Amino acid sequence: MVCRTWVGAGLLLAAAVAARGQNSGQSAIDKSSERVVFFTGSVMLDDGSPPADAVRIEKICDGRATFVAWTDAKGHFGFKVSASGSDVSTADADQPAISRSDELNKPLNASSTQYSMPITQALRNCELHAVLSGYSSENAIIAMKSTMDSGRLGTILLHPLSRASSLVVSATTLQAPSNARKAYERGVEAMRVQKWDAAATEFAKAVKIYPVFAIAWYQLGLARQSRNDAAGAVEAWKEAQKSDARYVKPYENLTVAADRRADWAESEKYSHLWIQLDPEDFPGAYLFNAVANARLNKAEEAERAARAGLRLDKDRKIPRMNYVLGLILMDKKEYAESAQCFRNYLELAPNANDAAIVRQQLPKLEELAANPQAK
Fold it and tell me: 282 or 17, which is more confident?
């Protein structure tokens, strides 16, 4: 009886809006019994301690990752999912968009849950995971039968990636005075709710009190980056690297920033230092190093880096490595292996932006591989 009532209400609403040709701003989703769901949880290292850094929490639905929250100084996080999914100021999950026209155009035999349970439906294939450099994350399922279910997710554990775990925590953190740590923690809390200006102010206070507070410099860079201050972010990350040369995170950000602005010498420099610091746990460092060396016309170094990266990328999570090595080998006229690299790339990333171009190139490469004298 309840189900029929919901179906009837949904159909009457759709029919009424369609018949009148009006857009009153009230769709079936607005009349939903589901308005908002709050989730809370925590992130801990597998030894039971909270992470020293703020941890990025992502929602993954059908393979698509979306940022939802940062953890606070104690590893706790919280966020909400609303039917509209539009309130980003409170770190809402990014709901798959359901437009008003889509809602009204549902088939007349649509299930009542499509009208009354938009949040439950949207979360049915979703889970959360935590992102912290040097650690792998367990996942937390957030699928719900109804919004009456508890939104308490428990604890997500982070497991260290061998040597990397000792490099993602700065030794300077333990030596920071209490007033600097308090300013840092206020900055982390401001980051969690995406108040970038407030976060930058607090992190700046922390490093003024304790100038070698590497993690505070690093977070200051993130806050500045979120304010679209790329130069200020790079400046902060360089200070973090100077404060603690064995703290790995600044090297990654400095490498990526240099790559984005096509500063190949800087990208090569910081990716090389990144590799030297930890040659086993970050295959992405080799990708940036290969690209930078190729751009600097250092073909041997570029090939060496790309091959090393492929050896480390055992789970094949970085398809681009195959593409870069394929280009390097094509320039060396090693067409057979180049073609194989491009085939591997298309297998791993069939929908990449440049996949169509690679498919066009493959027959020519295969022809050259079969007949090296062909032009």
Answer: 282
How deeply is 12 buried, as exposed, middle or buried, from its count of CB atoms within 10 A (0-12, 13-18, 19+)? exposed
What does DSSP say about strands 56-61 and 64-70: parallel, antiparallel, or unpaired? antiparallel
Contact 287, 320 (CB under 8 A): yes
Q: What architecture is the 2-160 domain classified under in CATH?
A: Sandwich (2.60)
pLDDT (tens digit, 9 = 90+) per residue, 119-175?
667 777 788 889 887 777 888 887 666 556 667 888 998 877 655 554 656 778 878
Q: CATH homologous superfamily of domain 171-370?
A: Tetratricopeptide repeat domain (1.25.40.10)
Which of the two residues, 34 and 285, has the higher pLDDT score?
A: 285
Which single residue is written with the structure tokens 């492929």?
Answer: 310
User: Residue 103's closest CA among 15, 3, 1?
Assistant: 15
The DSSP-derived string for 29-59 is TTT-S--EEEEEEEEEETTSPPPSS--EEEE
Q: Rounded CA gap, 244 and 209, in Å?
A: 16
Task: Spell out the domain ranges in the chain.
Answer: 2-160, 171-370
